[in-house]
Design goal:
Chain lengths: 495, 783
């Protein structure tokens, strides 16, 4: 098998070791050569490339772990990404894109000058639906935010509000694939996997790309949405489970004691060492993966334990309080993860049946009041917490869903899916906040001013991470594939 | 020059045009502010731009995508993607769209600047005028030319398979079969030494896993080691190739390639309760050594061979195996159809042709000599193919199922309505009822989820601009790829009665340059871990070059000569000395060779292989004695963590197979569900199930260690293994250690291994020892 080196040369330098408070072991010295490389080979999520490269029992000079960082193309601002995924499609009209004309036209059919749109459910004869939300200007920037977000509005100056987002699909699964991978079909790497592919891992006791799903249930595009596609298995996401022990197989089987298992591990090592030939790097790497597994087992739960946080921090996020508790816990965990070097964390709001997501077909008021009340304070808490810890500068925060919602009413009070114009937010990681990007038309139907496709969001994200979006490539079926399909443009206004 | 031109001005309209070309050739239209005010014409303002930027590919000598930019009328006729311009409507003109999006001219060609593009826009907006009344016709002899260059036709994989003889080699002592001659010739050229023969215990273990995916039992190993007849190895080879476990192992390789899964993926991930019939068809076909040309034909054109025949229709499930997007609401039927046809066309390219035809869906293939028209012509073979479920149960049983399903669905609907109106206190109870109810939905009676031709509803196939079904270009009919036929090869009539049979006939023609090469390369890859061509799904000009081109041709030729039977090819390979080599050994040429050939493409030695996820699981079941070797039948769903089913959009889809003995069946009989892959398989590099998987990875990472140490399955197996040892060895520690090694590693323990194990067992439970044995390198890797 070939090394999936992509077009970028892989650096053999050791990754920059960041302060890792939960790592009691001495930090590895810089470029301690083979040992370090081997450790990386067996690093948290794997080493397809490395494992196959060393299958010749010989570690060549250009052998590097797939989880080592690639060459950064340009100065980077962000070293981690937190994606606050508002699944189901939050309405632009109730949140960050006020449309007074829409209220004036409430109950009327859409005037023809706004053009056509295809929806999933509502037909062409549907009537426009005004919003009951009130908008007010906030912060020094005076950015308009609806009354759904009393907390997020207090940090609005950190956000760039991109009002002119658009995608190609109006159904959940295809739109979710596009949001994550830039393609409307499954099988392509997600932005999390691309991030990990580009940046490598910083932590050796934690998985580097984590998804924190909503315990309410799964989303339409399912697990394949988060996956590594054709990128090697090393770039897979780790799906966290609800509860205190979120990673599969980190627990000892019931009835087995730690000291006993340590003894078993010792036996495994000793038996394997008997047959290990000197210089057999692949099998040596396999032995090291057991050390690493054991380290994860012992150290990761420490990171997952929110009891280490102060009461004040819990309150800041809304931990322990209805209705914010669940999302607050996951946001706080996201902060702890990026603090320990995790590269990409996706915190999903919404799961299971549509109305448990932001998918407000039936009643936009009921749905969005509920979803906003669950997430507003945790999101604001996360922003403030990152900021006061100096982490916001190096953590890119992305907020949004797979599409927005229709200006027309569905069934009187709901809104249908809508992909031609909706809002996403970006903050931190060098993003210039306190500004609005682009605009939709007067009823919020279509992005008309500086429209930005998902690919532009991806391009901007990669840019902040230090990559030229067109140069972060991986060969697949005869082509150099990119997250941005050669069509993404960095949103210059905010970088 | 200007003066001379002026004097010619009065001669003829044709000359006038020529003059305009001459006069304007040196200026840059669009930069002239005058031009923004005066009336633009094609000849004066536009043609010169095209002349310098576009005509090399869209002019007299070449008309890429069927587009000729030399006249306004050729622009209006357009190319494969339809008209290039609509006078008066710049926003509807494809030409301008491509210029604006910087898709044309191609990246590496000189680009038009903004002003020049502005001039084109303005010309279009003002009605796309020409100078004078009529345009000069194009000279004769400039009709569509062959877009495939001679150079592309000369690419090795498009050449006929050569009938080569094994090379003569200096030192014949190491050559047992013709394959060895090819391999040794390359090694001798480089003065590299092959490795010595592997030991017999190594060989038997390698062969069993390779041909059956299962470890040899200690008794089978012992029998082989004590058989000193000259053909003892051949006997085992023939025995294993005749064993039904051969089909169970090699079917997995084919299922990887054809993106086999038993659910539709996307949001609903609906189950095809009968897709397992395709898996059984593949297993049986391989076990019966069905000729590969026949195997291909049945999968591609099963419905046309003999309509109604169940086996052939089962083969044709092939077309239905891709992920399908279904959605509620206003469905775009044409879009869905386009997605299905796209998926089905791409897989034929990858699986059978070993070409990435899918890249030509939106534009002529940038890297390969495959035009966009070629792509849609390939798709046209499938234009009439539609879904067709053949019920196998009696009509009465089928009717009963439909009625019962309708009843329960009605109840579910009612219950859902109640839940909406229920109080928070009532909800959990009602949710529970709902769950119960959805479990009561009866399984569909046996059905073959196949396909057939529906000519009445045949999809008209057009070249689609940028692959978008709403932007239809010229209509096309079926035809093989241009690079593989002569330019004059006509398209099939659109109403040909057996279109897929035509495709299958073309693919399985003994002279086809790709089909045989692609399959023998896959077989080689799965025996040695690396293909002669490493990009098994890409034999195009940008794919990998073969390490041993003559050997590949010799194998392909042998396949066709043997009536396309695969077992003789396996036999040729595993009987070779090349296959029977040991792993790497120190020798004088080793360091230099390892540096020059890091992936061991030249097979200086045999490359150790990490078992696949399926093999590890099957081997654990075999070693622990728990394996249930039952063959065939509906796929099994094993118990999984509720957190995993919780990740499904519809958790009730995961219905654990009630009989626990079924949970211990070989991995090939476990369900392949797109939205729920078993974590065990996932961590050991099982394919993603969305698209074709040409080669498995073999990564090493910590979650594997966690799976084998803490995973429920590993610990279950360790306990069963411990029980087996206790049973068989009556608690005798020495015998247990001996037996454990013989079962799991295929050999006796060495003295230090014995000592360590004995020591451990004095103080620790047996199930911890067996767990350690299942974590041995010698268990997870085959030498």
């Amino acid at each position: 098998m070939d090394a999936p080196a992509g077009r970028l040369s892989m650096s053999t330098n050791t990754s920059e070791k960041t302060a890792n408070s939960s790592d009691p072991e001495p930090a590895h010295g810089p470029a301690t050569g083979r040992r370090r490389v081997l450790q990386d080979i067996s690093s948290v999520l794997g080493g397809l490339a490395a494992a196959s490269l060393v299958s010749d029992h010989r570690l060549r000079a250009d052998v590097a772990s797939p989880l080592q960082p690639k060459v950064i193309h340009q100065p980077s601002r962000a070293r981690s990404v937190i994606f606050l995924f508002m699944a189901g499609g939050p309405s632009q009209l109730e949140t960050f894109d006020p449309k007074p004309l829409l209220n004036e036209l409430h109950g009327q059919p859409r005037p023809s000058q706004f053009g056509e749109a295809k929806y999933q459910f509502v037909q062409t004869d549907a009537k426009l639906l005004g919003t009951k939300r009130r908008f007010r200007r906030h912060g020094q920037s005076g950015t308009e935010v609806s009354d759904l977000f009393p907390h997020m509005s207090t940090c609005i100056d950190d956000f760039a509000v991109i009002r002119s987002c658009h995608g190609d699909q109006v159904v959940h699964s295809a739109a979710q694939y596009e949001l994550f991978s830039g393609r409307t079909v499954p099988g392509f790497p997600s932005m999390g996997s691309w991030t990990l592919f580009g940046l490598g891992s910083e932590s050796d006791s934690l998985p580097a790309y984590v998804v924190l799903p909503d315990p309410l249930g799964a989303l339409e595009a399912g697990q394949p949405m988060y996956m590594n596609g054709f990128l090697p298995a090393a770039y897979q996401p780790t799906m966290f489970r609800p509860g205190d022990r979120p990673v599969l197989n980190l627990d000892l089987p019931s009835g087995v004691h730690l000291h006993q298992r340590q003894r078993t591990l010792k036996l495994i090592r000793e038996l394997n060492e008997i047959t290990l030939r000197p210089g057999d790097d692949e099998l040596e790497a396999r032995l090291n993966s057991y050390n690493l597994a054991f380290r994860m087992q012992n150290q990761a739960p420490e990171v997952f334990d929110l009891a280490h946080e102060s009461k004040e921090t819990h309150e800041l996020y809304g931990v322990g309080q209805a209705p914010t508790d669940d999302y607050a816990r996951r946001c706080l965990l996201a902060r702890r993860l990026v603090e320990h070097g995790v590269r990409f964390v996706c915190v999903v709001s919404g799961g299971g049946p549509g109305n448990m997501q932001w998918d407000a077909h039936k009643d936009i008021e009921e749905n969005h009041l509920r979803k906003a009340s669950e997430t507003d304070r945790p999101v604001a808490g996360l922003l403030k917490d990152l900021k006061r810890r100096g982490l916001l500068d190096e953590t890119l925060v992305l907020w949004g869903g797979e599409f927005g919602r229709s200006p027309e009413a569905q069934g009187g009070k709901g809104r249908d899916h809508h992909n031609l114009g909706f809002t996403m937010l970006m903050a931190g990681g060098g993003i210039k906040g306190g500004q609005i990007v682009g605009a939709t038309d007067e009823i919020g139907l279509r992005a008309v001013e500086s429209p930005h496709h998902f690919r532009d969001i991806h391009a901007t994200m990669l840019h902040q991470l230090g990559f030229d979006p067109n140069k972060l490539t991986y060969p697949h079926l005869g082509r150099d594939e990119r997250l941005t399909f050669l069509e993404g443009n960095v949103i210059d206004q905010i970088v | 020059m200007l003066l001379r031109a002026a004097t010619l001005k009065l001669v003829s309209p044709a000359c006038i045009l020529a003059v305009w070309f001459l006069v304007n050739a040196g200026t840059t239209p669009g930069q002239d502010t005058e031009s923004t005010r005066r009336h633009l014409t094609f000849e004066k303002d536009i043609a010169p731009l095209f002349e310098s930027h576009c005509l090399r590919c869209h002019g007299k000598t070449k008309q890429e995508a069927g587009l000729d930019l030399r006249r306004r009328f050729t622009l209006m006729t357009g190319g494969d993607s339809g008209p290039a311009i609509v006078p008066g409507m710049p926003q509807k003109s494809l030409l301008l769209e491509l210029l604006n999006d910087r898709l044309m001219p191609p990246e590496d060609e000189p680009q038009l600047n903004d002003q020049q593009i502005g001039a084109v826009r303005q010309w279009l907006a003002s009605g796309a005028a020409i100078f004078g009344k009529n345009e000069r016709p194009l000279a004769a002899g400039s009709e569509m030319v062959d877009l495939v260059s001679d150079e592309a036709r000369k690419h090795w994989a498009f050449q006929p398979v050569r009938d080569v003889s094994p090379p003569a080699i200096a030192d014949k002592s190491r050559a047992r079969t013709p394959i060895d001659a090819f391999i040794l010739a390359e090694l001798q050229k480089r003065r590299w030494q092959p490795a010595p023969p592997a030991t017999r215990p190594t060989l038997i273990r390698r062969l069993y896993f390779d041909l059956t995916g299962l470890p040899p039992s200690p008794e089978e190993v012992a029998a082989f080691l004590s058989d000193d007849s000259a053909d003892s190895y051949e006997k085992v080879v023939d025995h294993l190739l005749a064993s039904r476990h051969y089909g169970e192992r090699w079917a997995q390789h084919w299922l990887d390639v054809v993106r086999f899964a038993e659910t539709e993926g996307f949001e609903y991930d609906r189950h095809f309760p009968d897709a397992w019939r395709f898996r059984d068809y593949v297993i049986d076909s391989l076990n019966n050594d069905k000729p590969f040309d026949r195997f291909v034909t049945e999968q591609i054109a099963g419905d046309e061979i003999q309509p109604g025949d169940h086996e052939y229709h089962t083969a044709a499930i092939f077309h239905r195996l891709g992920a399908v997007r279904r959605n509620a609401g206003n469905p775009d039927i044409a879009l869905s159809r386009n997605e299905v046809l796209t998926e089905r066309t791409n897989i034929i390219g990858e699986a059978f042709l070993g070409l990435t035809v899918g890249c030509a869906r939106c534009h002529n293939h940038k890297l390969e000599p495959i035009t966009q028209k070629d792509y849609y012509r390939l798709q046209a073979y499938l234009a009439a193919t539609s879904e067709y479920d053949i019920p196998l149960a009696s009509p009465k049983a089928h009717e009963a199922w439909e009625m019962r399903t309708a009843e329960i669905k009605a109840d579910i609907k009612k219950l859902k309505a109640r839940i909406l109106d229920a109080t928070e206190d009532q909800k959990p109870q009602l949710q529970q009822e709902l769950k119960q109810l959805s479990h009561e939905l009866p399984s569909r009676p046996p059905t073959i989820p196949s396909i057939r031709n529906d000519f009445e509803n045949r999809t008209a196939i057009h070249v689609l601009r940028r692959g978008d079904w709403e932007h239809k270009g010229v209509a096309v009919s079926a035809r093989p790829l241009s690079v593989l036929v002569t330019t004059s090869e006509p398209e099939l009539a659109p109403d040909v009665t057996s279109p897929k049979m035509q495709l299958a006939d073309w693919l399985t023609n003994d002279q086809h340059p790709l089909t045989a090469r692609v399959i023998v390369n896959r077989i080689w890859q799965n025996h040695f871990g690396i293909g002669i061509v490493r990009t098994a799904n890409d034999f195009g000009t940008h794919g990998d070059r073969p390490s041993h081109p003559e050997l590949l041709d010799w194998l392909a030729h042998s396949l066709v000569d043997n009536g396309w039977r695969l077992k003789p090819i396996h036999r040729l390979i595993v009987l070779s000395n090349t296959y029977r080599q040991s792993g790497p050994v120190p020798n004088p040429s080793a360091p230099e060779a390892a540096a020059a050939d890091p992936h061991n493409r030249f097979l200086r030695h045999f490359s150790r292989r990490r078992l696949s996820g399926e093999e590890i699981r099957d081997a654990m079941l075999a070693v622990s004695g728990r394996i249930n070797l039952k063959a065939h039948g509906p796929s099994v769903m094993t118990p999984v963590d509720p957190e995993l089913t919780g990740l499904l959009y519809n958790p009730s889809q995961w219905r654990v197979t009630p009989d626990p003995r079924e949970h211990d069946r070989r991995s090939i009989y476990l369900i392949a569900k797109r939205n729920l892959r078993l974590p065990f398989m996932e961590s050991f590099d099982a394919p993603g199930l969305q698209t074709s998987c040409p080669v498995r990875g073999a990564s090493t990472h910590a979650p594997q260690a966690l799976e084998l140490l803490n995973g429920t399955f590993a610990n279950d197996m360790a306990r069963a293994f411990a029980e087996r040892l206790t049973r068989e060895c009556h608690g005798d520690v020495d015998r247990m250690v001996e037996r454990a090694y013989r079962l799991a590693a295929g050999r006796a323990p060495t003295p230090p291994e014995r000592d360590l194990s004995r020591q451990f067992l004095h103080e620790q439970p047996l199930a911890e020892f067996t767990l350690a044995v299942l974590n041995l390198n010698d268990f997870i890797y085959v030498p």
